[in-house]
Amino acid sequence: MKISTRTRYGIRTMLEIATGTDNGIFQKDIARNQDISNKYLDHIIHALKASRLISNVKGKKSGYRLTRKPSEISLFDIHNAFEPGICIIDCLSGNFECTRQKDCQAVGFWKNLNDQIVHYFKSVTIDDLIKEKIKL
Questions:
Q1: What residue segments make up the domains of the chain, in order of their start?
Q2: Strand, helix or coil for residue 5
Q3: Can you tell me the distance from the alpha carbon of 136 to that of 122, in angstroms, rounded to the nearest whole number?
Q4: Which CATH class is domain 5-85+125-135?
């Protein structure tokens, strides 16, 4: 399983926004601080806004802010802004038909592993990552 660049950059973007000021943080500052091109960051910002994880601060020269507290936004929420759920192998997806599914002895293992990954993504919040960095 490989986590997409969009998800990884989305998490970094959310951390930048979460640690910004009440006036929000500008996209150009996120791009500079996280070494992400403005053009690519446009796509990241758009997906995060469409998922209602961030919004524009109202007013002149405003930036972005979170729509909820950092403790209420999980990494699963961010991942879902870019990907339709987590699925470590094709046979667990709803639109894949495996000819060996009835006889497969390993499918239970893969499903349990997938469930653990989903649970972990749901259990870690932006606030957890901020606190972890403070510990370091």
A1: 5-85+125-135
A2: helix
A3: 23
A4: mainly alpha
Instruction: Please give the full DSSP string across 15-69, using - where no structure is assigned.
Output: HHHHTSBTTBB-HHHHHHHHT--HHHHHHHHHHHHHTTSEEEPSSTT--EEESS-
Exposure of 35 by Cβ count < 10 A (0-12 exposed, 13-18 middle, 19+ buried)?
exposed
For residues 99 and 111, give the distance between their C-alpha atoms in angstroms, rounded to a whole number: 17
Q: Which two tokens stand for residue 112?
A: 């349990």
User: What is the C-alpha separation between 21 and 18, in angstroms, rounded?
Assistant: 8
Q: Which two tokens stand for residue 100?
A: 């060996």
At 20, is the pLDDT very low, low, confident or very high (cuts 50, 70, 90)?
confident
Vertex 118: Cα angle to 13 and 2 (nearest 5): 65
Q: Quick one: pLDDT band at residue 49, thresholds 50, 70, 90?
A: very high
d(CA 33, CA 64): 15
